[in-house]
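# step 3/5: fold
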Amino acid sequence: MDTALSTIAAVNLYQLFFMQRIRHWVLATFILTFLVIIAGGVVRTTQSGMGCPDWPKCFGKWIPPTNAAELPPDFEKYLKKQDIDHTFNALHTWIEYFNRLLGALLGFFAVIQVLVLFFKRVQYSRSFRLAIAFLTVVILTGLFGAIVVKLNLAHLSISVHLLFALVLVQVQLALLLSLQSKLFFIPVSKKVKKLVVAFLIILLTQAVLGTLVRMYVDDVSRTLHYEQRETWLAAMPVNFLLHRSFSWFVLATVLFLGWYCRNIAGIKNQVLMLVAIVFLNMIAGIALFYAGMPAVAQPIHLLLATCAITQTMRILLQANSKGIA
């Protein structure tokens, strides 16, 4: 009897240890996904998108050149694809190459989490399906990266590429929460859940407006050879005015949501975090305009926008309104 109990205890302990390791890996993959988004933002703000003018190689090599002397004999066919000055820039090349390496690393992490969850696919069927979905989106994102390069950073291709990244974060978030215990789920009323859904729609609308502003900035900056950053929004186009005005509506809405949830245990702190993220992102947006479009503020603005959408999704995924009016 004692031997049987000891065996059961050992098995349970092993199961607990195994699942803990899986959760750690899923969390690490979640963090890495954000790092990939940051790297993509740095690529955009430094105009390094065509630093590697071909895909999946870079100047026809798996390890890109570090100086012009290492360029291949037919390097002209690669440089003519660039939209800046058609010259080799080692910094741009390696920024883009590092971005691709992070993407490849994310793919490796995605494969591992599918493999480890395969052995738990019966007990954690939803988690296993989400892991497969994440790996699928990672592969599609990587393949679409080739299209972005092929189209020479066309507006629509960049926007779709960013959309893939946002989907990646949300799928991995759902996977991470699916492995948590039921203690992490928050009981809320259906009205609160509807308010959070409405705010998510507002955030996504603001993200679309921000994308339109980015398209305008891309056109203006290209004509100025990516110089005179302080003049990129000098004309104050309609897209920018809409995006700026709508940001006040976003702030007012999230403040109302924070006030409405101020006495609801469990969700209060989550909403307060959301309020802080939105407020910080608004400051980053103000800095972009009034400080002359500093390069560092662009990836920060993108990151905070992603965090705001992700935090809203986290609240929705954790909110449990069953049986609550």
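# step 4/5: annotate
The radius of gyration is 23 Å.
# step 5/5: archive (pending)
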